[in-house]
Recover the amino acids of this structure.
């Protein structure tokens, strides 16, 4: 294979380099004008996407595994990169989403409108995309960490694109701190891996024994380091503000793919082990349930469209973790069906969440572009002016809710099937899966409620403010990427059987113990053809219903009034449901964790009641009520130790002298 | 020159180096410090040459020559011009007064001798007895950095430490490999340029060369 000029690995490596340096020409302002440079970078990114996707699909179809040694001399032994179906599966979103987002940026963040930031934004966008791919290609700890850090730093510069705004700056700083705290976990993980496996190279899948304490430490550090990046619930604090403050296409790429690179890290590190103890699976499942339920509950309370989508990312990462938890429990109890269903469900949800969340973020970007605000309570009636965006956003919304006939349904179905397999078992494993299944159902239900709110408030009704009424439909560069993503959503939902072979190969790479049991295959475990058939029937019914409704609407009398007019004499658009009134019931239900801040108006009294206002806000409770207070306490507690940092030069030299003398003495003793 | 004579000569030079290290601790005038530093470099160069001659390690002659050029001529010259240009003459009052510093220094020398005693037992090099002096010179240089407040004396303390390290290398193993020594010499030269630039910046920013002023750079709580 390696001798061929156009082998899948060559395609993928070329695509990675092409993506990483697509923005480099922009760094020389004399060479290219910003607009032309952006066009060139977009075309390079698109070329990288096409090459990379082709390569990844080829790897998945042929299930080839190759490793290459890097010619590099650092004192860590050999450095390797390689491809296998697991890497290739994660490369699908890594090349699909940034390609779409780059095209979108050509219109959304056009060089003529943002001359100050377009150069660095385009450069770091390409760098981030390329090094996300490099992370999945790395086959040893050092290469992995290099790629990981470059990816994380590039993402920081993207979050901080509009660094003249203070809230963007603070979001960027929070991201930078958390990403480095996460990397600290990885600095723990890889030396432990070296300790267990004997070299910095990644060991063969399933070659390490998971019952040793070193393995447990590795599992926990991996969960911490990668979980921080993936945005799993108690570690998600950076995610809402970073996603809300980055440009929309960057949010799409970050939410769609960077989080998935974190998931990749976890899957890859779990793949090293065999005979996994039960508590690993239970812990991952628990984290998934917490992220899923609490994430979606937070989402319901948001008024900022992009913050809301960011919390949905946390929810979906929770769903992915539930799938991984099922797989690990299956491994502990020896149920190959659970392993396959859980892994396949998690991996498919990785791709699905990447597509529909990118679609939603791009759609949100179009809406924000048209209305000039992120506040949902100022929008309204956007669907009339942006019909295509509304339709595409609707597709994304249905997909994220896990409803048929779109892709979210398929992956959640696989995870449900995994749960049901688990319930048939016995002991703690059965209890855990039995408790997790309703949690997934709750997540699905709340997600529907949340997107009904988003769609109703933003797209339907009438514009709430004159100032933020939408005016224009997005350009083709914005609509085309969204259409591509919507088509992928629909295709996966309508014909999941097409992917089952690839999914199975990717799952097999992650958990090679599956190969021992030849009887388990995704085709026999999951009723994918029935899913397809149902999806097509449902689509037909929907089309028929839409046609019938349209015809009836044509016959109905045409009139225009304000939504929720309710027979008042002089209704105004402000009488419509607002995002907080819609969500009031649900945020109230979850107030024990959301801690919403509500300022209620006093009851109007007297003949001429004074003006009053209602205000509600759901803060990032985990950050503001847990992390910041505990860090402040830590800061105060360590005040005496900080006195050591006097800033006086002689004291520092004295510290060195004392250390030196103590070292000598200790050696002498 | 017989072997025993060389050993005795080397011991004498080691004593002189230790003496200059103490002189550095005691001297208050900055120009005087530069002179003492040059003398220390001269004794070091001489000692290196003697060891080179007695041990037959002829690459030590190059080291000796390098030391002579760098530490006796070039660095003192740079420091001398700096001191003239910055118009500094006397050191600012030390953190610890000079008699106490000397006592601390004596303790460090005793400590060094105590520490290197096992090495004296094991080694069969002719320079084994001077290792304690070398270690003491390093620690005395460090002590000078701890007790003095003037930026130029800080640098002199640092350079004295470097002298001690160099002496330790020649005493313990007849010198470092040539490449390393050339590298160190180059580093010193670069360091001289850098601290020259820094002196000017410190003196213009704080209008003083007192390094305690730099505590102002610390973030306040």
């Amino acid at each position: 294979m390696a001798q061929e000029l156009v082998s899948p690995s060559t395609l993928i490596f070329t695509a990675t380099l092409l993506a990483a340096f697509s923005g480099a020409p922009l760094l020389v302002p004399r060479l290219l004008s910003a607009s032309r440079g952006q066009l060139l970078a977009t075309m390079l990114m698109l070329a990288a996407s096409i090459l990379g996707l082709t390569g990844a699909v080829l790897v998945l179809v042929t299930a080839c595994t190759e490793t290459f040694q890097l010619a590099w001399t650092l004192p860590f032994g050999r450095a390797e990169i390689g491809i296998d179906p697991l890497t290739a599966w994660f490369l699908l979103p890594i090349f699909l989403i940034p390609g779409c987002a780059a095209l979108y940026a050509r219109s959304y963040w056009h060089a003529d409108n943002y001359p100050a930031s377009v150069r660095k934004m385009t450069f770091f966008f390409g760098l981030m995309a390329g090094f996300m791919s490099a992370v999945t290609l790395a086959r040893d700890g050092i290469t992995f960490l290099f790629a990981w850090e470059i990816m994380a730093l590039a993402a920081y510069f993207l979050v901080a694109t509009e660094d003249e705004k203070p809230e963007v700056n603070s979001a960027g700083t929070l991201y930078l701190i958390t990403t480095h705290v996460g990397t600290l976990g990885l600095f723990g993980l890889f030396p432990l891996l070296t300790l267990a496996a004997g070299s910095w190279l990644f060991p063969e899948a399933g070659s390490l024994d998971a019952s040793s304490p070193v393995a447990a430490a590795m599992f926990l550090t991996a969960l911490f380091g990668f979980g921080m990046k993936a945005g799993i619930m108690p570690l998600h604090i950076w995610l809402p503000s970073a996603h809300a403050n980055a440009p929309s296409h960057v949010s799409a790429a970050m939410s769609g793919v960077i989080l998935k690179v974190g998931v990749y890290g976890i899957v890859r590190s779990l793949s090293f082990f065999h005979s996994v103890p039960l508590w690993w699976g239970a812990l991952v499942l628990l984290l998934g349930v917490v992220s899923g339920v609490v994430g979606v509950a937070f989402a319901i309370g948001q008024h900022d469209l992009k913050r809301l989508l960011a919390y949905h990312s946390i929810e979906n990462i929770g769903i992915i973790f539930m799938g991984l938890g099922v797989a690990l429990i299956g491994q502990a109890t020896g149920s190959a069906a659970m392993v396959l269903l859980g892994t396949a469900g998690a991996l498919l949800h990785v791709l699905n969440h990447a597509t529909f969340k990118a679609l939603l973020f791009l759609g949100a970007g179009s809406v924000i572009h048209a209305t000039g605000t992120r506040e949902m309570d100022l929008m309204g009636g956007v669907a009339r002016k942006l019909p295509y965006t509304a339709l595409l956003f609707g597709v994304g919304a249905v997909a994220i809710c896990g409803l048929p006939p779109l892709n979210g349904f398929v992956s959640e179905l696989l995870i449900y099937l995994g749960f049901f397999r688990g319930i048939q078992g016995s002991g703690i494993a059965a209890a855990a899966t039995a408790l997790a299944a309703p949690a997934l159902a709750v997540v699905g239900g709340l997600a529907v409620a949340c997107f009904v709110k988003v769609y109703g408030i933003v797209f339907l009704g009438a514009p709430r403010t004159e100032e933020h009424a939408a005016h224009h439909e997005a350009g083709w560069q914005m609509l085309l990427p969204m259409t591509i993503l919507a088509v992928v959503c629909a295709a996966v939902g309508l014909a999941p059987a097409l992917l089952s072979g690839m999914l199975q190969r990717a799952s097999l790479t992650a958990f090679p113990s599956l190969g021992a049991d030849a009887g388990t295959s995704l085709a026999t475990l999951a009723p994918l053809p029935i899913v397809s058939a149902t999806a097509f029937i449902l689509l037909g019914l929907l089309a028929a219903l839409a046609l019938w409704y349209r015809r009836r609407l044509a016959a109905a009398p045409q009139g225009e009034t304000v939504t929720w007019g309710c027979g008042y004499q002089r209704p105004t658009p402000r009488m419509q449901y607002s995002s907080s009134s819609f969500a009031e019931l649900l945020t109230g239900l979850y107030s024990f964790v959301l801690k919403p801040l509500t300022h209620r108006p006093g009851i109007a009294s007297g003949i001429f009641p004074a003006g009053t206002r209602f205000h509600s806000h759901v803060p990032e409770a985990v950050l503001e009520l847990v992390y910041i207070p505990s860090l402040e306490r830590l800061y105060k507690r360590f005040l005496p130790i900080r006195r050591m940092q006097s800033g006086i030069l002689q004291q520092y030299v004295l510290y060195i002298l004392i250390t030196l003398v103590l070292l000598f003495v200790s050696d002498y003793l | 020159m017989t072997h025993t004579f060389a050993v005795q000569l080397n011991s004498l030079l080691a004593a002189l180096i230790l003496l200059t290290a103490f002189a550095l601790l005691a001297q208050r005038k900055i120009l005087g410090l530069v002179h003492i530093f040059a003398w220390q470099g001269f004794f070091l160069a001489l000692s290196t040459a003697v060891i080179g001659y007695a041990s037959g390690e002829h690459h030590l002659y190059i080291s000796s020559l390098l030391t002579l050029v760098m530490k006796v001529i070039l660095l003192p010259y740079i420091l001398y011009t700096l001191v003239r240009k910055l118009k500094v003459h006397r050191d600012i009052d030390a953190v610890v007064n000079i008699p106490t510093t000397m006592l601390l220094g004596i303790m460090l020398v005793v400590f060094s001798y105590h520490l290197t005693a096992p090495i004296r037992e094991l080694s069969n090099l002719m320079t084994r007895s001077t290792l304690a002096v070398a270690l003491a010179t390093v620690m005395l240089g460090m002590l000078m950095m701890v007790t003095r407040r003037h930026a130029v004396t800080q640098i002199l303390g640092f350079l004295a430490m470097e002298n001690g390290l160099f002496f330790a290398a020649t005493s313990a193993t007849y010198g470092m490999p040539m490449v390393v020594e050339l590298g160190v010499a180059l580093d010193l030269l670069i360091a001289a340029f850098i601290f020259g630039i820094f002196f000017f910046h410190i003196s213009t920013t704080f209008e003083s060369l007192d390094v305690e002023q730099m505590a102002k750079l610390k973030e306040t709580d």
